[in-house]
User: Fold these one by one.
Assistant:
Number 1:
Amino acid sequence: MASTPTLTPVPDISFSRETENLGILFAGFVTSSLLYGGTIFQTYAYYVRFPRDSNRMRYFVIFLAIVDTATSASVSAVLYHFLIDMYEIPVDVLVAPVSMCVQYALSFILVFVSQLFFAFRVFEVTGGSRLVSLLVVLLSFVSFVFGMTSAGQMFQQRQLSSFALPTMKAVAMTHLGFAVLADVLILFTLYYWLRKEHHPYLRIPERFIDRVSVLIVNRGLSFTLVQLAYLCAFVAVPSHQYWVMFQMVGTKLYVISVFQLLNCRESENGRGVNEEEYLEPPSATSLPAFRPPSPSATRHTYLDIWTYPYADVYSSSQGEYTTTGSSRTGATHTTAETPKAVQHEESQAVHALVSV
């Protein structure tokens, strides 16, 4: 009696590839959406805490917030396209819709503008060193040019597996390589110069977790690592779309790092004071407002506005009373009027002098 041969099930390669592609898009969408929530909060905190910052900086913040919002909307449209519009069509091969191409191009704008901001910070902390800051600008500009070229190639070749072709792969790798070089230069420059040896009055966090947070966010370690992972994933397997997730997340980390760096500054009369400017002697800076506070004055930090939601602060240099953190918003309001309690104390002191 002949035995019936056992049939070995053949794995459905297209189904596994479709699951992989959708999983990558979903992971990128969820992570970038969570980070976008941080962008909204940081934007609100900036405009509340620094109402007297320069108009240039305020326009820069709103520009980043608007472009980041457009990027988030494009990511949502990408996921809607693949999960809803193409519900009955297999997506074993990712073909980029217009929304994905737009998101890809906008990400290069956000990265370039953010790196320019950090190049300006490098210029500030190095005491005006043009060599290092211009090198960061040059690396960022080359990365931006090749990135926009790669975006144009995506508009023409919608299939993402086409990035494995020699021409598209070379352009994308050049863009990523120069971006990583700029990020590494930013990271090491800020880490080296923002120390006690170069800025004696620099405030160093005491807790270990705070130091790690400063290194990850304020020094640029977060987006440097993600950009490096983006480059490694693209070089290792360009035919697979693992790099898409890092591309979506990395853009958000640039914006978050810029906003966090701005919001971690001290607030003095509605203007931001950088960490290296804190408690500098009057002769060390051209800004007279950034001076050591008198014993009767108080300066509130980013965390203090939640601990001390309302405080009246007297500025001896300007002869004004400042109300900080009214209604738990952290806003700073300055008034030339003397509070009634202080007026009463002054009147008592006058009577005492007269009686003497």
Number 2:
Amino acid sequence: MKYFFKRIRSQMELYLFCISFFLFYQFVDCAQPYFPPQILFFANGATLYAIDEVNQRAYKSDSYSVKQSETGYALKKFPYATPDSPQSKYYVQLLQGFPNIGCIYGTYWKYGGSTFNAFPSHWNNGTTFEIKTFIDFKYPMIQSTNSSVYEDYWYSNQTCHPEGPNDVPCEEIYFRKNTDIPVRSTQVLETPWETRQFTTEYLVISVGKPDDKYFNSIPKDWATTCRDVMLGISYVPQSTKVDLNENVKIQVWLPTPPHRINGSDVVSIQWKANECSECLTWTPKELSFNQKDFQVRQILTITRVKKGSTINLIPIFNGGGFEQVSTKNYTIVIE
């Protein structure tokens, strides 16, 4: 009797093992694949990406022509940053563009973010950033049972209606057979003019940690020579009409703190009139902000003392990393 129960137990264990083995491989076979976490590839033949989710760094290079190119970097704790600065602690995205962009960057923290994005949009969320898989599927994906002998085909469980007679899956992706190496993907997107299905072709160069050479090309002096896109001035109002012998009180503050340069975190701002300098007076002649009071609204009082045409008051910056800031967006307009 003991031998009988022992034999039954062994058979049950074998049965459970077989069931578990079968379910495991069924699950693995049906699990939706994604881009490898470390990969180097071309998208549509022209854009080179080096993505390293493990070490949270990404590189992008676009060569539109011999006269136009862009290179982007995204890393946490960006190299060559000023010690103890936000850029040394948080994610930074830096973009070099020839000939129009120059060198610009944005820092993802509570007072930061960026006015540009060179990488997939689902990596950033305003003031936060994280390097993730290259594609963010919006719908559950289904593996086709009619894939070719060379590729695995996945499609979304939702269909969309682009220009044309037929509905198509809203998202599709093709992989090399039994791998997570992408070949191409499609996505239906709405533009202001039409709804289209866009295709992206992938040429994978390597899977695994991208070569450090792509990140060694970061300019070592970027912290002082590139422009922080979040540095600027806030005004209320920025444009207004002022009659003769009347004045306007303008609130002035900074949306993000100035940088600490050579031990000083102070930025001083003066203004100059683009014409008819004798038509206006303003007090004080200079406002200063630092990393503690940058959000405190200060008052600039502008008085019209002579009739004249519309006048632009152009800011003059000194310190705080503002030397690279363009003044054209921070001009006060007095009619």
Number 3:
Amino acid sequence: MGHPTHVLDQYYLSITLLVTVACQLLGFAIAWTFKFDKITDFTGGLNFIILSILTLSLGQEFSARNIITSLFTMLWAARLGGFLLFRVLKTGRDERFDEIRTTFFKFLGFWIGQIIWVWLVSIPITVLNSPAVTASGQPRFGTASDIFGIIFWAAGLLIETVSDIQKYNWRNSGKPKDRHIDAGLWGWSRHPPYFGEIIIHWGLWCLSIAPTVTSRTHGGTRSAQLAGLVSPLFTMCLLLFASGVPTAEVPVAQKFYKMSHPDVEEQPPHSGPAPSTAAWDNYRQYRAQTSVLVPLPPKLYRALPGWVKRTVLLDLPMYEWTPEKEAAKRA
């Protein structure tokens, strides 16, 4: 182990912010100039890899914990960025940018959001690799937080990877278009990749926190490590209240309703013609028996009281779209 290099501050927060801003603005410049949105998610994943390598190299702390946590961060980022790049190359475009691709400030807003996402979510590994934590000393690898971290990370990566593969296979298997995917993990959770993503970041935080849990850090260093909680919490808030579940649930419900009522604008089924397919009924049945996030057997989920589904399992009213709600909103 060599001597750590101090850059701007003892936690590497400033240098990682500057590197992240540079990476993302470069990505924006390329994407805007060539009207090319295929590199957006890839640029985010690459940014995490750069920060992990940079902080590990600067910090010169090559203990098992630092190496494993850095490696786990890079593996997660490479898998996520690689899969999303493969998907957008396969489909030909990223539908998220259809309405903002040609508007400078709206498109820039996405990249600024990605700066915030990358920097905040990378805080656990950034602080762990920093001179402040290195100077405090570390316990031997194998503490309870290390074990929990490995279990959470491995389970999350497995869930995320398997569910992505299952959805890809479903879309390419010629399954009926009027049925929502209910194969494998999708029969137990409406959004298994999001559940996997959340527990991955809880795992990375658990791996990074051992020096503080074992009382090796004090003062500002302890606070900086605890501040790494922003990573899993921000991930949860992002997926539960912003760009994850809310942006997936409503469009999917609308899609299946329109498949059953192609000639009727969103309105209560009883006020329009008879359904032309069973798509809407199939989707309502799937939704009623499938947990929004935490994987659960359909029979168990269906039997749970509504308040448990809403408060414990976070199946919030904001996720539900029905033609009746749409009609009431327009009234």
Number 4:
Amino acid sequence: MSKSTTKSKSKTSKKDKRLQVKAPPRTLPSTLPTEQAREAVESNVPANTRHSPPPDSHATPSAQGSEEEMQALPRPPEKRAQEHGSDTCDEREAKRRRKKLGKLLTVMQRDLKLKEQSNDIEKQHMQARLLGRMVHPFMHPFEVLTFGINFDGDTALSDGPESEDEDQDDDPDLIAMRNKRLQQCELLFQFHAIQDIIPDLKYSLESADEDDLIVLGRYLKSRFDAARGDDSSALRRVVITYMQAGLGSDLVHPSTALPAPSELDKVERGWQNWFTARQLCPQTMLEEFDNDWEEFSEAVMSGKKLIRGDDFPSFMFDQNTATEASDASSMGCLRSPYLLMCYKCLWTGPSSAKLTYGRKDKTPGKPPIAIKYKLTTVSPRSIAYTVVLIRSELTNQTSFALTDVGQFDPCRLFNETVALFDDMSSAWSRETLQWWNE
């Protein structure tokens, strides 16, 4: 009987074990997603203790062990984001900008290699064409971008103390220091101007390395050089045809008494032709030119007479008032009707050249620069850009060059023309720009 009883108890014990319900585990499988893990933990904690403070030192060992197990669980994503959110966002934003710049540079490099224009970056292509027109036609983008990225805004530009002693004006060291400061200021201006005209580069440049800047610099330069070529072609014919209307009927050849021609081949222009030579002649040397233009021109072409970039050509001046004074800022400088007609032809279209107020509305055909880019005001740099192109087209050089006969420097001509407006508060600057924007 004892054996039977024992056997019966054994069977009952095994059956009871099979019917028992196991309690849920206190530790969760590692395969559960974090969110599910958090919910599972909370489901095993009584509602009145889920957000209670941690147990004190007198808690039972089992309770302390349970708390340690819960602390070992993965933290919710919200908590991780709070602890590392700023760094993570910055890293993600940097990667996004880097990826965007990489795609842009890939297309640019392909276009440079194939000498074509992709529709993917049509906007950047058009913006880059405006750089030479509105910023500087002789800009070196790689140098500008490198300087701007490495420029420390907390450090002042290199310059010496401004001295009011006139005896130090000829000090070579002081002159060199001032020139370096002016160069740095110009580079910084160009750097910010590039970002203003091409906004996509404003924040992407932070992640660019030297190779990126090389590709970007080459692309920008190729685009605004091409735009300058198109603009030169637009002015090539009109710089001759506008002479009669812009310079007046008094402009006649001294020997033949013939008026200015309506057409003149490029190779026949320059110092060898009286009409173009007189426009190229500096305003301060016109009297000498008129006394014997052939001798004057021969001296220029042979290099005996040097013409510098700040020797402003006579076509920049209104000849009706230019003879009244010798100061460039008070003798009709930049008020030439001829210069104004050429400017209108380039910026608002040939049909607006003879209109008193130009043209601001769209017209059939290819839109001019001002209409295409929605430019509403005349700037000193757009005037200087036009001056450089006109002078180039008056020469007999078949292609745009950085030097001309007589060691003339067109880059300096641009800089000196812009420098006329250094003091924007002066009466001359205000009145001149007002005259242009009427």
